[in-house]
Hints:
Elements: E1 2-3, H1 23-32, E2 38-41, E3 47-50, H2 52-61, E4 65-66, E5 68-70, H3 77-91, H4 96-106, H5 112-123, H6 129-137, H7 143-151, H8 159-164, H9 167-180, H10 184-200, H11 205-209, H12 212-218, H13 225-240, H14 242-258, E6 264-267, E7 278-281, H15 286-300, H16 303-307
Parallel strand pairs: 2-5
Antiparallel strand pairs: 1-4, 2-3, 6-7
Helix pairs in contact: 1-2, 10-13, 12-13, 13-14
Amino acid sequence: MIETQRLDPERDRFRISCHRDTTGLERSIKQVGCIEPVLLRNREAPEIVSGFRRVEAAKSAGIERLPAVFLPEETGDADALIIALELFLSTNSPNPVEQSLALRKLEEHFSKEEILGRFFPLLGIEPAAVIYRRVRAILDLPESARQALADGRLDPVCVPFLDRLSETDRRPAVDLLLALRPTKSMQKEILEYLHDLTIRDDVPVEEILNDEAVQKILARKPANLPQQRDAFRRWLKTRRFPMLSRAREAFEQTRSQWKLGSEVKLVPPPYFEGRQYEIRFAFRDPDEFAERLQKLEKVKNEPDLLKKLWE
């Protein structure tokens, strides 16, 4: 047994767990005590190797003593870290922040090649260099982003896009994603467009998001979240691709003037680049076929309306 006051969870060089709730553990320790001993090293100045959450929960519950086991004195830092990692992984599936934390600690003792080949499979990470950079970058993100990655509100796929932003730009970008709660693909798209705008327009993310139109969108009630996301996405695309947006708007106006209805589709060239358009329609009998052709004949008889596509 050891007095909990002698244990300091802030001495955390072997800690892997983070952003995990200890409420249930604290309740369990109050009811039945701490069954599993904490693992320590250095009897003179005890240092936690495994059991950080148990110590925190015991301190919060007012438990004065905990069962403890000490590693042999000759155990080195690298071996102690491996033991801590293996014990953690035996009962936990690491979240993205814990994966990043483990990587950073392993870097103090092992080469990149050894971490990729030996430890990434244990952590459930694909052993690829590009993934290595992504996992490593997580600890450099704002606390709000790390918390959101840990609890699943942000997807790890967005990490490289956040990493491309400056430190001052990351926080407002993360706040935006947490407010809109977009899908994984939309998270990537939003971050990519924001980064492009900061480069092209030489403005910070915060200034982009302070645009009056954006503030009106974000001011809508949370019940309108899907509409908020769609409205912001349209605004962002228009800001990022103004010429494409104008071309699309002109095309839609022309298409409505053609009055083709829903049965005949007028298809523009990809990204409105080029001069080739397509007409598509389906029919079930000769009468429907004649009806579709009749609509196109009306457009043919109005050359000025037809020419608008190429103006």
